[in-house]
Structures
1.
Amino acid sequence: MLAAGTRSLADVLASGPLPLAVAVTFAREIASRAAVFHRAGRAYGALAPSWITVGPHGLTLPPPSGASGFATPSSDLRDFGLLLHQMLNGSDPQDGSPAASVDDALQPSPETVRSAALRLAERCRRAEGQSDLRRASTELRLLQVMVNSFDPDEMVGAAFGNRWLEQLAVPAVPAEPAKARTRTSGCPSCGSTAVFLAHQLTLLEKLLAVVNVKTYRCYGCCQRFVRVFGLYLPRPEN
């Protein structure tokens, strides 16, 4: 019996697709957990909407059932691809349906993020190339960062699409701090105006932060820059 305010993901999807930010966050959490078992040579085997529950505090995954012998890492990957598609569209993929359009990498938007997530779902569902859940989790993390960086006005129409989730007293997905955006200069490599403050990850970046030289990232070409005297200068990646 489900706790009060909790439903199976299958029941939630019956009310429509998940909000983009919720779908990407849930998908990353699922992929990350299942990937832990894959690295140990085991399968998770419980990646179906009817087994997963959603409540005021987010997503709850059931215990892994890969010990049954019917699940494999490849079947997990295909199940995850189907699950991600269902969360984004609210329904199963239709054979012969047109593939998601290629993103305009220089103009990131909620729709291009959604298209990228749908392409990831299709690759996983078909187990194409070197697809695995660890890589899927990494790709979803980047999409999650991009979604969190969008202005509220950009998320109109993508913020909610599921009436049941709107009625939750507590947001289903805790909001992550969004990175500040600057549009004073374009990316020196691709010219995109979508340039964002980046976290200081390397020793050089931390030293630059001490002297108030900020580090930025362009999501179009995924290159990092520093701003000196008001100009963006490329910093070679290690």
Note: Residues 98 and 119 are 11 Å apart (CA to CA).
2.
Amino acid sequence: MESKKLKLLITIVDRNLGQKVTQILREEQVLINNISLGKGTVDDTFLQYLGIGVKDKDIVFSVVNNSLIPNIFTRFQNDLHFNQAGRGIAFTIPIESIGNDQVIKILIGGKKDE
């Protein structure tokens, strides 16, 4: 089934970097993205000790074809420096059952049949 090819990609970055994440995702042909505002819960003194500092976050939710994930993660590492502590985090969750075949085709970039 087509839905096994889909993942929900969740990316968490400092506030105002969500647009940069969605730009990378659009360049990688991921067109379904939603930015939500988030707020960290860690104490400010602890954040300063770790050198992180910013608690306000952008959380980007994206529907991604599984075959695109390796390239996206490479771009996040190269362009946004996710390999450095405190720069951001991204992970995927499988999408198992989301609707009929028409919905799945639209989510993976296909066109709706007339």
Note: The mean pLDDT is 81.
3.
Amino acid sequence: MANSWHVLLEGNVQRGPLTEEQVREMIASGQVAGGNYCWTDGLANWVPLADVAAFASACGVSFPPASPPVSGQTREGWETIKGTFDRGKRTALRTLKSAKLRMDLSSLRKNREKLCAALGAAVYMQQNDSTVSDSIKGLLDPIAQCDAEIADTERRIAEIESSG
């Protein structure tokens, strides 16, 4: 038995069940057009009449021929697209890592500036003393540590940005 069709008319009024021939007659008489929706058993959703092979020509649409099988060229094209995407993804990850390290570097430099300012204030306060006090020595070690962390962070940024 042939499929029975249901067609949505103006105002979402449903008409059917109809035979294919009846639907074609409705198209020919102008009661429905290619943009009207139809449904039959086997379809998951309502679709435009023009998208159904059985009604496309009646709607003035030439239905496209079946797609050719996937060729080796198509597969190669897909691999090229996938490779491009993967390279872009790796570049984005490198950029994110570099940006985070640059933020860390900025924070380290600000911390170093504070330590140097504190050192300068301590030296100024003790400018008449002939020896360097423990408070000044206590600031020199964190500055040296900060310098080492800055150098390490700059090295890591350079490694990330040169990879690829």
Note: The longest strand covers residues 14-18.
4.
Amino acid sequence: MSETPRLPDAHLGKAKELALQHRRSSKCNSCYDRGFQGTDEHNMLVLCPKCVDASAVLADWRLYVRETPELEQLYGDYFEDDEEEDDVAGNADAEKNAP
């Protein structure tokens, strides 16, 4: 059995909404203008690689996970390493800009 928990169906609608928000083109034959091609075995969207800005969707999904206690409990540790890297990069930028 895999380590990744299954996304509760109640949150799949929000994921679809985020995929639609970050589409780069109006017509796509790969996803039929949905922004995603389906779901995987963890009930997570498979974003369309042709018309969706995946990094923007991921950034918004991170915010949604942080704001939703149920998802924070399920997926919070998946984003901790990335947040620490962002904090380190932010501190490095702050040190460069310090007088």
Note: The chain has a mean pLDDT of 82.
